[in-house]
């Protein structure tokens, strides 16, 4: 098949890890007779430096015209001034919103070879295989009103947590569809004992659940979910939740996998177009040194093949190659090894 993939390397270690993932995609294309064309564009701090804005119009237009988008990471100390008018992270939020990517899939699987890489005891992580579906274009991140003001001589700030039923139903429905292909269990996470938006979330979720007779629904409050992720993560299959809860819970869940460096993500909307990125950040401390772990980005490329291009066998082949490389002892520094970024990429390609 022919496909156009936009590459958004971004900042920090972004260019190094995206380049390894691209090499993996090239090998898959050669093996399976596909033709992937790449369109490299600017986002984040790199875009601010070159154009003054974190998401140039041309970047968004190129993404809309493409079949899929592979992103490295954005941000870094250079653009961190709290008084700055433009920030790299705004580019990420704007592209999610601009492409209508309302669902962020973050799978967390404990690979047997990495059980001892987690700070948690082996029995807490063994067998963990969960998928967080995080709502991505609503809630506190985008709600209006949002403001800073001075009221009665006191500085004051407002953020708004707002969801309508359509925003809730579409992401919950996707979670149920994904659960149907897994262990048929959805945990919906909210704070319905306090928040009005969570009570609507719970009501709409129950309605959507009616469409899926074979998938079980469980509701859980976000605070106890945070605890259960550490004490009994094996009991989760698909977890669906609003934007901010999902942001926090997925960083927590990443600890189960042994390293932030191995975790991929997919952001999906109504069509086939998706944005794929590792869940870690731009790691400015190791940028340019060639030691970053490319696994999270390579597994994101696998998700790209699966969800945007419909190439399931190719996606599964990449995932098997990653597991085989790690089982065979391939380790970057974050996993306690000494392989460089490109050596890790090569170890994976050797098993494809
Ligand atoms: C993430 C990140 C982003 C978010 C930041 C960088 C805006 O933490 O993708 O989880 O909060 O969504
Ligand atoms: Mg986050």
- Compute the average pLDDT: 97
Please outline the major beta sheet: 10 strands, mixed
Task: Write down how many β-strands occur, each being a DSSP E stretch of 2 or more residues.
Answer: 12
Q: What characteristic shape results from the CA principal axes?
A: globular
CATH superfamily of the largest domain, called what? Answer: Isopropylmalate Dehydrogenase
Distance between the termini: 19 Å
Number of domains in the coordinates? Answer: 2
Percentage of residues in helical conformation: 40-55%
Topology record:
Elements: E1 2-10, H1 14-32, E2 35-40, H2 44-51, H3 57-65, E3 68-73, H4 88-98, E4 103-109, H5 122-125, E5 129-135, E6 147-151, E7 154-158, H6 165-180, E8 185-190, H7 196-209, E9 216-221, H8 222-231, E10 238-241, H9 243-254, E11 264-268, E12 274-278, H10 295-307, H11 312-327, H12 341-349
Parallel strand pairs: 1-2, 1-3, 3-12, 5-10, 8-9, 8-10
Antiparallel strand pairs: 4-5, 4-11, 6-7, 11-12
Helix pairs in contact: 1-10, 1-12, 2-4, 6-7, 8-9, 10-11, 11-12
The structure holds 3-isopropylmalic acid (IPM) and magnesium ion.
Structure overview:
The chain is globular and about 60 Å long. With 352 residues, the chain is an alpha/beta fold. The strands form two sheets. It has a ten-stranded mixed beta sheet with strand order 2-1-3-12-11-4-5-10-8-9, sandwiched between helices. The protein is built from twelve helices and twelve strands. The protein is 40% helix and 20% strand. The chain starts with a strand and ends with a helix. The chain folds into two domains: 1-103 and 261-352, Isopropylmalate Dehydrogenase, CATH 3.40.718.10; 119-257, 3-Layer(aba) Sandwich (Isopropylmalate Dehydrogenase), CATH 3.40.718. The site of magnesium ion (MG) has 2 residues, from helix 9.
């Amino acid at each position: 098949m022919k496909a156009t993939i936009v590459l958004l390397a971004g900042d920090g270690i972004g260019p190094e890890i995206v380049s390894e993932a691209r090499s993996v995609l090239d090998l898959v294309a050669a093996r399976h007779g596909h033709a992937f064309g790449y369109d490299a564009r600017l986002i984040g701090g790199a875009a601010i430096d070159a154009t003054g804005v974190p998401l140039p119009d041309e970047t968004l237009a190129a993404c809309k015209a493409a079949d899929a988008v592979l992103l490295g990471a954005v941000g870094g100390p250079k653009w961190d001034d709290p008084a700055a008018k433009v920030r790299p992270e705004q580019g990420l939020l704007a592209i999610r919103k601009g492409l209508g990517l309302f669902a962020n899939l973050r799978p967390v699987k404990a690979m047997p070879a990495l059980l001892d890489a987690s700070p948690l005891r082996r029995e807490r992580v063994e067998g963990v295989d969960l998928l967080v579906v995080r709502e991505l274009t609503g809630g506190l991140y985008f709600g209006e009103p949002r403001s800073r003001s001075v009221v009665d001589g006191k500085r004051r700030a407002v953020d708004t947590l707002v969801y309508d039923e359509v925003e809730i139903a579409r992401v919950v429905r996707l979670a149920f569809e994904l659960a149907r292909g897994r262990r048929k269990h959805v945990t919906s996470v909210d704070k319905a004992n306090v928040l009005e938006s969570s009570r609507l979330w719970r009501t709409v979720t129950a309605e959507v659940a009616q469409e899926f007779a074979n998938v079980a629904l469980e509701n859980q409050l976000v605070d106890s979910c945070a605890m259960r992720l550490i004490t009994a993560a094996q009991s989760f299959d698909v977890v669906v939740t609003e934007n901010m809860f999902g942001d926090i819970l997925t960083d927590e869940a990443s600890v189960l996998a042994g390293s932030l460096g191995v975790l991929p993500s997919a952001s999906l909307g109504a069509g086939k177009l998706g944005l794929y990125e590792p869940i870690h950040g731009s790691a400015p401390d190791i940028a340019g040194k060639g030691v970053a772990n490319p696994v999270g980005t390579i597994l994101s490329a696998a998700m790209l093949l699966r969800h945007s291009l419909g190439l399931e066998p190719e996606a599964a082949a990449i995932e098997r190659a990653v597991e085989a490389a790690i089982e065979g002892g391939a380790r970057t520094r974050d996993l306690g090894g000494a392989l460089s970024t490109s050596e890790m990429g090569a170890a994976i390609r050797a098993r494809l």
